[in-house]
Every structure is written in structure tokens, then in C-alpha cells.
Amino acid sequence: MSSASNSLKGFARSDGRWGLRNHVLILPLHSALCATARKIADESNGAVAVSHDWSGEADADFERIIKTISGFAANPNNFATIFITIGTPNELMIIELAKKLGLNKYEVLNVAQLGSMGKIADVGLTLANSLVKEAAAVDRVSAPWSAIALGQECGGSDALSGITANPALGVASDRLVELGSASVLGETTEILGAEHLLAARAITPEIGAQIVEAVARYERSINYEGIDMRGAQPSRGNIEGGLTTLEEKSLGAAKKAGSAQFSGVLDYADQVPKSGLYFMDTPGHDIEQLTGFAAAGINIVVFTTGRGTPTGSAIVPTIKVATNTTMALAIPDLIDLNAGTIADGLKTLDEVGGELFDLILEVANGKETRAEAGLHHEFSLSRMYNTVIR
Amino acid sequence: MRKVLVLNASDNIAVCLVDLEIGEHIEQDGLNLNIQNRIPRGHKVASRGITKGDGIIKYGERMGHATSDIKVGEHVHTHNVLGDRLSTEQVK
Prior knowledge:
The complex is a heterodimer of chains A (about 400) and B (about 90).
Chain A: E1 9-12, E2 18-19, E3 23-28, H1 34-43, E4 48-49, H2 62-73, E5 78-85, H3 89-100, E6 105-110, H4 111-114, H5 117-136, E7 141-142, E8 149-155, H6 165-179, E9 182-185, H7 195-199, H8 205-225, H9 236-240, H10 246-253, E10 262-266, E11 276-280, H11 286-295, E12 300-305, E13 318-322, H12 325-330, E14 337-338, H13 349-364, H14 370-373
Parallel strand pairs in A: 3-4, 3-5, 5-6, 8-9, 8-12, 9-11, 10-11, 12-13, 13-14
Antiparallel strand pairs in A: 1-2, 1-7
Chain B: E1 4-5, E2 13-16, E3 25-28, E4 31-34, E5 44-46, E6 55-58, E7 61-66, E8 75-76, E9 81-82
Antiparallel strand pairs in B: 1-2, 2-5, 3-4, 5-8, 6-7, 7-9
């Protein structure tokens, strides 16, 4: 067993969840406020900000969008959130929803009330710096294993993904689930062809049927549109890497979830329960998935990649695991752990899985990931429909 | 070090761990392969003869089907394999 066992430390939140980071998030509630939010974060002593393109429109995706933004604000890795709003009712609904989802400390900067963007920037900067100082004074305390809510993600997959990095993540995920953590597999697109294997591991036949149905729903929508997915899935990069069909990619992608039983199926950005392995119905798009994970309360992510995939989250530490040694050596500032050593015959799957488990613990306890050091703060809203209100 | 990796006993392909060259001979894990094409690392080589229409089996699971006969030692990829799902092949 790992020497790091039982050494987990985090930030206790009042709703019983745990933060693995103590961020001050500047969150614009309207696309027009993104530049100001960014300016405040950049000038501050360590606050973070995200940008998005939502302007308060209440179209068919309204619920999905406010659920994502409010869940992101309520993520337990946030010590505090400073909302910047024009003050429209649709924007303010996000704050109310975030409170229901366990929003920690928060402040609201309302353009209508403060009366000038200059004032917003000045007041925002003062507030941000004082909250960052407050956050830095909070100590980590011993946390149970259920403090970890792990998100599993893969991007830029190659033919080694399913043999090296993904099954290594499966080994680490199995250990965490056994200890009482939560772990979430996403990317509905990328379990197509492997859903029968996952469904067979569901704790009830109903949950198994939900996994199959999530994929069937996706498949029906693609067939309805008459799209031949073989141009995009697998992608040209995947094909160059040796992946031939979507089913092959999925069989490899599903290895991330190890061999534990599935305790449930979650819709996009649904709040993650404290313990157990779950499947979340998310797009395959890397950033939309990562954003949905953060909105679900996931507080740490392992991202396996064959190509480096320079992306991360402003609030959720994202550990990059290389599937092959060539890429790990070529782009070292993107990679936290090289699982290519398995294919090189230098290490076993269990050895690398154990190293990854230890690394997850170190990062949970505060070790900075390459994505954090590189300030990879991508954020993307997932939409199902066209924006009808323009 | 192994040059190819067999992931499951029921597979009809093996995964190349190094770039393979035409004419290379591999005897490993009960396999006897004469490499027919240049096959890049990570790509698949037929470890058994595969007939057009047969399933391609990797990790012990079906990942698609052969669109032509494939000889032992031949590169198995998009030129001779299609997925079974999300394919518009049947509506053509």
C-alpha cells in the first residue's frame, strides 16, 4: 500500500464537502463582463477568472447553462466567488442556484448598482486581494477519502491510451473507490462500443440500462442528422496514432474506469455523490467535459493524453498522464506522469497505477500540476441547441 | 523487449510497440509473423488470417469488421476496417 495512505488534507466546507484548493474565483455572469473579470484576476495576488459567451439569453439551453455556471461557482475548491453582474434576473438566478448547490463565501458586484466599470474593477481588485489573503490564512485539516471527487478524462488519444495511461488511471480509480472516494467517467461519445461492458458492471440492472440508453440517445441523434461520424470519431489525430474505429477508441477509453461497479448515472453537471464510481453523460469535447465536471463538484481530474492537450481548469487541478514516452519527453511542461513506460516494458501497469494513486494524493494535498503552473484556465459551456434569441 | 503486444487470447490483431518494417520476422508469445507492410508503432498487425466481413477483435471485444481479406502480418487499419456503429455504409 501507499505510504501516503490516510495523509489526505483539505479545506472543510460548511455543507460537508471538501476543497482540495482554496481559490478566489472572479465569475462574470454576462459575456460583456469577461474582460473586467480577467483584468481583476490578472492584477490580483492570485485570484482566478474564467470567460464565457453567455449573455443572459433564456433559450432551450438556459437550464443547462445556469446549472453549469452556478455549479462551477459552488465547486468546493472555491474559498470565495466574486460574481460580476449587469443585474438582469437571469444572471441573478445563477447566484440563487449556486447557494442551493453549496456556494461558499461570495460577493456580488452589480454594474447597475456600482454605476461604472472603473468602480467595478477597483472594488473588485480590493475585494479579491482581501479574500486571497483570507484564503491563504486557512489551514488544511485531515480529510476522509470521500473528500476526493475524481474526474476521469482522456484527450488526444492514441493506440497506447487503452494500454498504458487509461488502465493505469483505472488502477488508481479502483483504489480510490474502494477507499470511499467518488470517481466519475464521462464522454458518452467515447464509450460507444464499450457500453455493454460498463453496463454489466452496474450495481442494478436499471443503472446498466441508463448507461446503455445514454449512448443510444447520442447514437440516435447522430443517425437522425445523417452524419457519418467516421470523419470525426476517431479524429484524424487518433487515426494517425493507430486508432481505427470509434469502438476501438471507446474500448480503450473505458479502461479509465477500472473494474469497480457503477453506482449510478449522472446527467451533465449533476452534483456528484460522496462515494462510488459513476458515469456522467457529457460531450466528448475536452473543455466542455472538464467544465461540466467542475460544475458537478469534482475537485481533482486525471487527464490522459497521447498528444499533450494543453488544457486545464481555473479551479480544478488537472493531472496530465502521457500515454507514450515520445510525447512525454517532447512536451515535458505539459506532463505530470509518463505511463508510456508500460509500453516500453520498463514498468508494470500496477506500478504506474500506484505511482498515479500517490500523485493524485500529492496533488490533492496541494502539489501544483503542470496545467496549474501553465495557467491553463479553459472554460466552455456545453450547448445542445442553436441560440434562438439573438 | 517485445515488438508486439497481444492484449487478449481471443484477439486476431496485435499492437505494435515499435515501428515494423516490410520483411521483418517476429517470433514471440507463440506468434509467427512475417510483416507485410511498414507498420507504425501503436498500429495493429493481423495475428491471424481475417476474412472480409469478419469482426476485428481487440481487448477480446469486437471493434469493427474487415472490408477485405487480411493476411497474417498485414497492417490492420482504416484501409481494410470499418466500425460497425454510427456508420452510413448501410444507407449508401
